[in-house]
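Schema walk-through. Below, the input block comes first and the output block second. Nothing else is stored per chain. Lengths vary across the set, and this one has 315 residues.
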Amino acid sequence: MKITRKKFLRNLLMSFSGSLLFPFFFNSKINAKPELKLKYKPQPQQWQNDSITLSWIGHSTILINLFGKWILTDPVLFERVGIYLLGTSYGPTRISPPALDIDEIPQPDIILLSHAHMDHMDYPTLKYLSKKFPHKIDVITAYNTKDVIKNLDWHSINVLDWNEEKILHGIRFKALEVKHFGWRFPWEKDRSRGFFKDGRSFNAYIIELNGKKILFGGDTAFTDKLKKSKEENIDIAIMPIGAYNPWKRNHCNPEEALKMATELKAKYFIPIHTKTFKLGIEPINEPIEWLRSSAPKYPLKIALDEIGMTFQLKN
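--- output ---
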């Protein structure tokens, strides 16, 4: 019994100390309330099923209606992200609320998870959604990350490694390699450290249906890996643009995100991974302002640039 208690306390201490090493725990305001008010509110009940409609809910969470199929990316819908212990998350607090409360989210057909970082694979949000819609949601996740959520009530969990594809609900999903890292806790094996067989991985995804392609960039630094995938003619590129200072090794800046999207011949661009949590030291409005000022130099259009805004891609 003493050994078990020792192990529990040691693991608990490691969890908390490890959390301090996460980039997204940098300069967090633990007890802060959202500082930013949203100007826009999605109305998914009014979206049509004969086109592609999507809205930026916050951070890397995008709600997509893809010709009648609902996809939710990296859902993070509660006040905090971080270590989940005794029913509570310990970590950074949102500086902007989600554009839709968790109970306003339509039942997803598919949840798409890019990697196991706590601001992308948020256990409380995933637990809530799986309980609300038990055995009704299919999940796609990266290689060696299934263990984080395998105890929840999903219809299926589908693991995709780099360059693997799967047809789900008639939609083609393809996992792409990006430049990032995958460990959820610092002591875990991770592909960015060379553990390719048993390390945690990290994906971007191609989502394709009816001849339309969406790129969900997940989380990445500037890289030519997406270009090398040869997945060109992207209709909508959803790309991270925040937390590049000082984390340039793992996160691209707005200019770099635009360059990568342009290399894939993207028509429209949607930013994520900014204006939700204080993950870096750049001013909170800088990534969006940088995006707006740089976008005219590139042959694509910004589809939306504020949390809560909605974009419809018509045939």
